[in-house]
Write a structure and sequence with these properties.
Elements: E1 9-16, H1 23-34, E2 38-45, E3 56-59, H2 67-83, H3 86-98, H4 103-112, H5 114-117, E4 123-126, H6 138-142, E5 145-150, H7 153-156, H8 158-161, E6 175-178, H9 181-189, E7 197-199, E8 222-227, H10 236-248, E9 253-258, H11 264-273, E10 280-284, H12 288-297, E11 300-303, H13 312-319, E12 324-327, H14 332-335, E13 342-345, H15 350-362, H16 365-382, H17 385-395
Parallel strand pairs: 1-2, 1-4, 2-3, 4-5, 5-6, 6-7, 8-9, 8-11, 9-10, 11-12, 12-13
Pfam family, one: Glycos_transf_1
Protein name: Glycosyltransferase family 4 protein
InterPro entries: Glyco_trans_1
Length: about 400
């Protein structure tokens, strides 16, 4: 039974419940619910549901670790497939067979996806591309529409790590959501019809990041901030090299990185070898309140990623009127407007980055204020939650 738009049932599939920094999903869920849509979150790994997440959460059953527990869990899943939703299970099996999957893979997919096969939805929306892997036929099996979001890493890097990972997905009738025009053109290059691709950028709570008490007062020292997971794709090693260039030119600065990740030790050592460790603070993960405070205490924001779907933190910085220097990676070119809300420079080029930092810092107060005002107004007009919600309502309308 299909529903009117105000009562559409939307199932969003994620690997886990959105963390504190994954505001995109939280904002989306909240916006859809406020417009009367019924949203259920399906996760592979269950954790405690935070108080500010109001939707229903369904977790995939564990198939166990040891041989005996795996065997028991698999038998239970098989019984559910046969007894609870036999028609859907058979349809899923046959669809996988039509895709040329080996018998073993068909059975495995059936057992892994059985918790989804009894759901009654209008849309099954996979929050990342790789989450649709081995689940390409679930939506058709349960009689609903299928959507997939690509957020950057999954579109550009996952196919390098998992060859042909989207071969089956790209053959299906799927509606795609991407964060930027650059990502849209990447899908088109993979022979996806333009009509099936919708660009919906991230959005921020503009009231939380209102410019308020932030001013563009000139500071003698550079107070530079980056909010990023410590991963090689974020290009932080190039940022450190650029800052080493500034230090060699006797430019005083303080650089703070908010975030944590697998590259922390390597980056700390790189800062030490470059002679700038005393000028760099690895702040780790901070609360939203602490992040906001750090943004207001800075006078320049950097996002120098090698690959970036869009970059919420750069939007937050612009919402406060903070000048931004970003790389030309993917969605960052759409996020920051070159010479209007900041500077966009070629990635992997520490010398160009160092020049851009100096150029922005050297702007006179009038030009800085003009850039800040333009950035604030643009974020408020183009990247607010209300606009994002309206676009997702339109996305699910047909």
């Amino acid at each position: 039974m299909k529903h009117t738009q105000s009562s559409l049932k939307i199932g969003i599939v994620l690997s886990s419940i959105p963390g504190y920094s994954e505001t995109f999903f939280r904002n989306k869920i909240k916006g859809l619910q406020s417009n009367g849509l019924d949203v259920t979150l399906y996760v592979d790994t269950f954790s405690e549901v935070p108080q500010n997440l109001s939707c229903k959460v369904v977790s995939a059953p564990s198939l166990g670790n040891g041989f005996i527990s795996k065997t028991i869990a698999s038998c239970v899943a098989a019984v559910k497939c046969i007894c609870l939703h036999p028609k859907r299970s058979l349809k899923h099996y046959n669809l996988d067979k039509a895709d040329g999957l080996p018998f073993k893979h068909r059975i495995k997919n059936l057992l892994l996806n059985q918790y989804l096969l009894n759901q009654n939805l209008d849309w099954l929306h996979f929050g990342y591309g790789m989450l649709a892997n081995s689940r390409e036929n679930v939506a058709e099996a349960i009689g609903c529409k299928m959507a997939v979001s690509f957020r950057g890493f999954d579109l550009y890097l996952s196919p390098l790590k998992h060859k042909n990972c989207y071969k089956v997905l790209f053959s299906k009738k799927v509606k795609y959501h991407v964060l930027s025009e650059k990502m849209k053109h990447t899908l088109i290059a993979n022979h996806i019809s333009e009509q099936r691709i919708h660009v919906i950028t991230p959005a921020i709570d503009i009231n939380l990041f209102a410019s308020g008490d932030y001013t563009t007062k000139a500071k003698e020292n550079l107070e530079i901030l980056c909010i990023s997971r410590l991963h090689w794709v974020k290009g932080l090693n190039y940022v450190l090299e650029a800052l080493a260039i500034l230090k060699s030119d006797n430019i005083d600065f303080k650089f703070t990185i908010i975030g944590d990740g697998e590259e922390r030790e390597r980056l700390v050592f790189a800062a030490y070898q470059l002679g700038i460790l005393e000028d760099v603070t690895f702040a780790g993960k901070l609360s939203q309140t602490e992040v906001l405070k750090a943004l207001k205490q800075s006078n320049l924001y950097i996002q120098y990623s090698i690959q970036e779907g869009f970059g919420n933190a750069a939007l937050e910085a612009q919402a406060l009127g903070l000048p931004c220097v970003v790389s030309d990676a993917d969605g960052l070119q759409q996020n920051v407007l070159h010479e209007k809300t900041g500077l966009v420079v070629p990635k992997r080029n520490p010398k160009a980055l160092a020049r851009a930092i100096l150029e922005l810092h050297s702007l006179d107060s009038e030009k800085k204020q003009h850039m800040a005002d333009f950035a604030i107004q643009r974020v408020r007009n183009e990247f607010n939650i209300e606009k994002q919600t309206a676009l997702f309502l339109e996305f699910y309308s047909n």
